[in-house]
Fold:
Amino acid sequence: MAGILFIISAPSGSGKSTLVSELRKQVSGVDFSVSWTTRAPRGSEEDGREYHFTTREEFLRMADDGLFLEHAEVFGKLYGTARLSLDDARAAGHDLLLDIDVKGAAQVRQKMPEAVGIFVLPPNPNVLRTRLRNRMRAEGVVDEDELHRRLGEARKEIENFRQYGYILINDILDRAVAQLEAIVLAERFYRNGEPIAYRSRRVLEVAAACLQTNSQERMKPVLEAFGILGDSGQQQLPFGDEPDDD
Ligand code: ADP
Ligand code: 5GP
Structure:
């Protein structure tokens, strides 16, 4: 049975890694591609678990040797998906999940148009700022420059949402996890004819509601809050002086 390639993208701090780790606890047969990066490990991250951490020189050598399926510069650091991740998942007959930025996702989509794209949105800019700041606090370093850099990129990244078949709004974590699980099970059902043991209709309904084409109403307030779809047609400025939503 052919494995399915899932690409998940989101502005940094939206909760993508959290969603993916919850999904992996609940659904078997999905491999997670551990990317290579030139950024330094954060908090409790371990080499080979969250990322393969490497130097810029080594990364560029690997890129020259054609070892990456895709790679991109994000927040001034290099990130890439090893082709080996795809080969290993295929050999095992597993699905593969890539947590990559919008530029890397575009490269993969070009090579593999059958990939399933999932875009995760935070509910609004203030929640995003709070999550980024809380994560930094938990990791022991609140780097305001890095925080602003990541917030500043969020809107540009969100503008790419149309390239993704599914939209998840990560407001209530349990609901977003259930939606992600439903998308995976529904895609397995439609593409591979894999039966969904129970709750099948409900699962398919939940996944269908997350299709981008069915998500206009849900997305509207989020896009407006990020200044992407102002009611008056004017762009609003996100990240004003409002306090964080702690
Ligand atoms: P990303 O991988 O998108 O950069 P993370 O998964 O690291 O984001 O999440 C950023 C922070 O937000 C983490 O501290 C995480 O615990 C928290 N978080 C994630 N999802 C939720 C949610 N639905 N509600 C509240 N906090 C969340
Ligand atoms: P972080 O530094 O917060 O772990 O990740 C920053 C951004 O890099 C996120 O948007 C994440 O999805 C992206 N990223 C992680 N791994 C890869 C990768 O292998 N390729 C690309 N293109 N982006 C990646």
Remarks:
- The chain is about 45% helix and 15% strand.
